Amino acid sequence: MNGFAQIRDLLAARLEEQGIPALAEWTRGKIPALSGVAAVTGICESESGPAAFWNYLGTRWDEEKGCAVERYGRTVELTLFVDLYAPKGQAAALEEALRTLEELILEQGGSGVSFHALRRGAIEQDGASGYLKSRCTVGCRACFTATRTEEGAPLTDFILKGVLQ
Asked: N or C: which end of the chain has fewer CB within 10 A?
């Protein structure tokens, strides 16, 4: 899975844990019938760069391989969007979902992703779906690391730091 999509999916999973169904996307031709609040998540903007000079973080001993491995890192800054939808007449439920999203951003749970900004949108009627909608954006920061044992080997397997594999 693409690293950026992994971060988006992490936020969607956290919403799901709080009882808010979340999708990575929906097509306008297949808008689901909603009985309550639901979220659609996606990526607005992204920027990545080295976590250190030439991405190099140093070496560590790998017990499994029995040798020292070089560690490399990349940082990622993302702005995610969270579109919260609710049927007409459920503005209070949508407002509650917005508060839930705010709480998720405030509590940092050891995932390797730091959510550091939330911009909350107004509740409006979405012309395409007919539902109530509020678009929020979430700023976050993450670090991906990779290791290699052979000098000159390509770095292809960057893993989101802090996420169990």
From this structure: C
SS3 106: helix
pLDDT tens-digit profile of 89-141? 999 999 999 999 999 888 765 567 888 889 999 999 998 888 999 999 999 98
**Contacts with 45 (C-beta within 8 Å, 6 or more apart), sequence order:** 78, 79
Tokens of 16: 């799901």
Nearest 10 degrees: Cα torsion 62, 63, 66, 69: 0
| DSSP 8-state symbol, 123 | P
Residues 128, 130: Cα–Cα separation, whole Å: 6
Rounded to an integer, what distance in angstroms lies between the CA atom of residue 87 and that of residue 100?
Answer: 18
Angle between helices 91-106 and 3-17 (to 10 degrees): 120
pTM attached to this predicted model? 0.76
